[in-house]
Design brief:
By secondary structure, the chain is an alpha/beta fold. It contains ten helices and 17 strands. About 25% of the residues lie in helices and about 25% in strands. Helix 4 packs across helix 5 and helix 4 crosses helix 9.
Length: about 350
């Protein structure tokens, strides 16, 4: 029986509890006609997984494998031609279901169901194998390692929709500010915006992260801890375009200008929006995850531009719960620069569990 990792129930209130990890046994996969069985080689963490362990995420439950990001090889399929064509191929999983192509949001009446750790979806990628409908996979970009490919799906999709679909400013020469550089979504947004020819600027509380972002292609950056950081940012903008066209924001801090696309509020549940912002015609647009079509478009862009997700740290093996706990600690501290990945098995190896 395949092994996976889920959270174990202990007493505690939401926000105060921290559920431990435990191994669980899954039934042997039995693919339906259009299903594919994937031997997972690597899976990656997202902030939602930390929130699940703290019981701060809707639908948190037990006995469901954690994590939504994964890469692996198709080892068995159902009988349909659409499923059979994937046999033997290395794939990545669409991290959620219920949203095909509508630009405004999920079409499914039940809503959008993200993989990993909740009642909404019985599957997660922190497992030896996963069985999904063949329509929910894309071939992993050939230039990426298994670890890099596993780091792509959720943050890549979220950044793609926020930047390309929602900002309206995915054009050469536009000034884009990305807040909280170092997180997975922010780094993917930096890669996408730079590849689109935008002038990209970033914020962080870490000078080291600002330096690394410049090395990746950011034109400039400022510490949000510095007094008057908005003026310092303005000084860095091109002479002929002394304003921000869009802000890709996952923090929910002060409003600085442009079209603000918010995909999260890690600094708090409120965003200041004063009369000055109204007079500047600033727009705020919410964005979360993305559709199946946007996922395919994002993967194709990554292939075409040969982009590589940034990986902060990797631990090896499903049996290494202590190491996986360490990745969660990195996320708690906010020390990561890029994705945190569990390499379940190396390509070409078989699981030792």
């Amino acid at each position: 029986m395949p092994t996976a990792i889920a959270i174990r129930k202990v007493d505690g209130k939401p926000g105060q509890v921290y559920y431990p990890l435990e191994h669980i046994q899954l039934p042997e996969p039995s693919p339906k006609d259009n299903d594919v069985v994937i031997r997972v080689t690597a899976a990656a963490l997202n902030h939602r997984d930390l929130f699940i362990r703290q019981h701060l995420y809707p639908g948190t439950t037990f006995g469901v494998p954690l994590l939504a990001d994964g890469c692996g090889t198709v080892t068995a399929t159902g009988t349909s031609p659409a499923a059979k064509r994937w046999l033997g191929k290395r794939v990545i999983l669409n991290p959620g279901t219920g949203w095909k192509s509508a630009p405004e949001g999920p079409e499914d009446a039940k809503g959008y169901a993200i993989l990993g750790g909740t009642k909404a979806n019985p599957m997660g990628t922190l497992a030896e194998s996963v069985c999904v409908d063949a329509s929910e996979v894309e071939e992993a970009p050939a230039h990426l390692s298994g670890v890099e490919a596993a780091a792509l799906p959720l943050t890549g999709l979220t950044a793609w929709r926020a930047f390309y679909t929602k900002s309206g400013n995915a054009l050469p020469g536009r000034n884009i500010l990305i807040t909280g550089i170092g997180g997975g979504v922010a780094l993917m947004a930096l890669l996408f915006a730079s590849a689109a020819g935008c002038n990209v600027f970033v914020t962080s509380g870490s000078e080291e992260k600002l330096k690394r972002a410049r090395e990746m292609g950011a034109q400039g950056g400022v510490s949000y801890k510095a007094e008057g950081w908005e003026k310092k940012l303005l000084e860095q903008l091109p002479r002929d375009r002394k304003f921000l066209d869009a802000i890709i924001d996952g923090a929910g801090g002060d409003v600085a200008g442009g079209v603000i696309v918010s995909y999260g509020m890690t600094l708090g549940p409120q965003m200041p929006f004063l009369m000055g912002a109204v007079l500047k015609n600033i727009e705020v647009r919410g964005s979360t995850m993305g559709s199946r079509k946007e996922f395919a478009d994002m993967v194709e862009f990554v292939k075409t531009k040969q982009l590589r997700p940034v990986v902060s740290r990797v631990v090896h093996g499903l049996d290494n719960i202590e190491g996986i706990d360490g990745l969660f600690e990195d996320m708690k501290k906010g020390s990561q620069f890029g994705k945190l990945v569990v390499e379940i098995v190396k390509d070409g190896e078989t699981s030792k569990l």
